Amino acid sequence: MLQLIFTNRILATRYYTTVVATTQIQKEVSKLLELKTQLSDENVGSKKHLLKTPKGTRDYNPEQMALRLSVMDKIVSIFKKHGAESIDTPIFELKDVLTGKYGEDSKLIYDLKDQGGEILALRYDLTVPFARYLAMNKITNIKRYHIAKVYRRDNPAMTKGRYREFCQCDFDIAGQYDPMLPDSECLRIIYETLKSLDLESFNIKVNHRCLLDGIFAACGVPQEKFRNICSSVDKLDKTPWEEVRKEMTGEKELKESVADRIGTYVSQNGGKNLIEELRKNEELMKQPSAVQGLDAMELLWKYCELYQISDKVTFDLSLARGLDYYTGVIFEAVLTGDNVGVGSIAGGGRYDNLVGMFDVKNRNVPCVGMSLGIERIFSVLEMSIANRGKKTRTTEVEVYVATAQKNLHEERIRILTELWEANIKAEQSYKKNPKLLVQLQHCEDHGIPLAIIIGEGELKRGEVTLRTVKSREETTVPRENLVEELKNRISSLELSAEY
Amino acid sequence: MLQLIFTNRILATRYYTTVVATTQIQKEVSKLLELKTQLSDENVGSKKHLLKTPKGTRDYNPEQMALRLSVMDKIVSIFKKHGAESIDTPIFELKDVLTGKYGEDSKLIYDLKDQGGEILALRYDLTVPFARYLAMNKITNIKRYHIAKVYRRDNPAMTKGRYREFCQCDFDIAGQYDPMLPDSECLRIIYETLKSLDLESFNIKVNHRCLLDGIFAACGVPQEKFRNICSSVDKLDKTPWEEVRKEMTGEKELKESVADRIGTYVSQNGGKNLIEELRKNEELMKQPSAVQGLDAMELLWKYCELYQISDKVTFDLSLARGLDYYTGVIFEAVLTGDNVGVGSIAGGGRYDNLVGMFDVKNRNVPCVGMSLGIERIFSVLEMSIANRGKKTRTTEVEVYVATAQKNLHEERIRILTELWEANIKAEQSYKKNPKLLVQLQHCEDHGIPLAIIIGEGELKRGEVTLRTVKSREETTVPRENLVEELKNRISSLELSAEY
């Protein structure tokens, strides 16, 4: 029976790898295999079912975690360079907190079972809990980052890197401040982050909700359709204009002439020149919100120049952002060059009215912030490491303590204790009498740079052998100088996270 | 109407602060206020309800987060010093994975709502997901740490620091190794961790499940009652022997003479001497599992001596640990001295059969590991900081860039860009023309050590003023040497997380 189950597991796996094939025979085979799998499932009990993570989620193995943690470290150090504090909120919120914040996407919220208490749901993003936190604690200004997991009951296309549980990495500035000062710093932070991750080829698109509103008004869009048409414009990064136009004139019932006028605007992008050009557009300049938007963009551009990032910024009229809550500048970073297909890897904008939705007196706290698409960044970096034929180190061990003969494990423990006391990262085999070859192989497999080898002869002479793992060079070191010698060696090593 | 709501909020708050009062009048007033609150709730809609986190959960503010992150950093650096890798698993598991692992406590599991997919539940600890991960990926050896939140639908006594969402901090070694080598390293790690957190007064109690079984057998406990009686012994850290005895002879139907014999054993603790003493006990030595347990304890003790931690370890026969899955050595660290009432702050043991519960062929992977009671550690450290009259810095800003007159904000941005490029942690006010006093006050409030002050005169002379915030000393620095001068100053500062 166990044999049969095991066979079925292999077949079941194979089934999932062949679904891409299209011939009729393969389809029939697949169906049969599926039936067989179901049959065996019924017979086996629950053990086999257990061996998976929930749909749309995954474990992270040590290689993945090593990369993720090092990337997060870099990002956090940039957030801290800009003086950010950190907060944390519970993974679930009262359902009411989330209701009415995400529009259509509310159906993707994970509810908790009512077990005779409050009605709870897993957080969908970090922005709404942040706004709830500000309102609840009556905080009127803060600069904070928050890196944590969020949950969306999406139908994940996992090959595209979309999961139901994924990490968000947010930085926001809340407070009543002067125009564009916090906003431009957010762009500077995106710039610094992507540079620090060696993602040099990128572009930050910027736009302004007021300008978009002005354009819609100038084109003759009825005001009640602004947000709706904004959603259509938002699709332009993935969808050609012709299809977006069809949506506007079709289900969104816009006049063809109005759609065409929108089309002439949203195809434009550039830099400072575009601002000047739009200033000359008399029809647009009749719209107060367009003037307001352009003034803001001009100031933003000036600050971007001062922050020396304007060469990476594009003023793009087709940028709209999906979320309803944005009220001012909006932005989105995309990779260019080799990684052009990856899509948006950072985005954000100003949302001045969200905190007020939680306040009894509707007191608002103006906010601007950004979210790094950290999962996409991980995928890009993982691929780049693989392409370079490198491996990520999963530990930081500097010294492996090995023995060349039997029954020397107590000496290993004595040395390890000394090394740990001296803050040297060190490990040993948990076997009493491991083979020397196995121990040295472990060092090579894990990129451990140094090994100490204890032998009976050396022990008598008060010495140990110090081996450089990569070059396989060995020298003898007096036992009493060991820690000092190791410290020197370690400080001169170029410790790399890859090998 | 808004006025009324606001008044009620104040009253409602006051209601919650007066519940401790006991006079009848106060009770009646409270009842009335509660009714009034309910009335206004019905009229107001949901806004007011939103302003809380779910029962048993809390937000962490920047002060709390700064402490938590610095403590976790220290702990992780110790785990890494011992060569640990990191893994991560989803926050929820298929419900079946958790079923049948926690005994009575299974009722505390948070279920997710069935929204037409899999039946899911939030993880209850990190150990069961770890075992599932090992079995699923057929991993036979790993040394890993995992710091993450877990969920228990407990009725939290929040003043005692028990929450429904809390952080666990686990280190485990899985693999078929030689006796006590991984086990003793776990104790060494607990030792190093508590030392590094300046929690010098602690004691690590150790015991062995086999020895306990041997004692129960020697005392005449029927074998089917071993685990059940073990649970009773486990209560001895909080409950006097007389009550535990009553439970044993009462609901657990043990003979009084048997309970009394158990009592003579579990009152014993000591070091190596206790091992020797128990060896002389002929009746106990007739039990093979007692001999096995004592052999293990003897070896463990030897390794503890070699690891130079035996002065912090106590062999304690009353230590039993609640969880069923332990199969060998068990341990628990408690604070002594000033923090004696805090309870257990680390615990763990060997569990050799848990992974097998997930494997189709019941293949086991022996494991030993420990969990730091990190929430209790935070509470102790928070109190200690408060007692010393210190504040925790919530940012790491090294330099604040201030202006002394109006319209110098562009110069601030230029300088900030230079500082950030040089990796100096720096910030400014987001107001165009902030008052100098407000800017300097911000530095003092946040423990920022250095400030640059830009004035019109200095600007013309190509200079800036550099101020040491604490001493309020000011010097003039040529603008072109600014970064160099700051780097020197910063490297000579003793940057502290407290001020």
From TrEMBL, chains A, B:
Its EC number is 6.1.1.21. The keyword Ubl conjugation does not apply. Residues 56-381 form the Aminoacyl-transfer RNA synthetases class-II family profile domain. It comes from Ceratosolen solmsi marchali. L-histidine binds at residues 125-127, 152, 168, 172, 321, 325-326. PANTHER family: HISTIDINE--TRNA LIGASE, HISTIDYL-TRNA SYNTHETASE. The keyword RNA-binding does not apply. It catalyses: tRNA(His) + L-histidine + ATP = L-histidyl-tRNA(His) + AMP + diphosphate + H(+). GO terms for molecular function: ATP binding; histidine-tRNA ligase activity; RNA binding. GO terms for biological process: histidyl-tRNA aminoacylation; mitochondrial translation. CDD domains: HisRS-like_core, HisRS_anticodon. Keywords: Aminoacyl-tRNA synthetase, ATP-binding, Ligase, Nucleotide-binding, Protein biosynthesis. This is histidine--tRNA ligase.
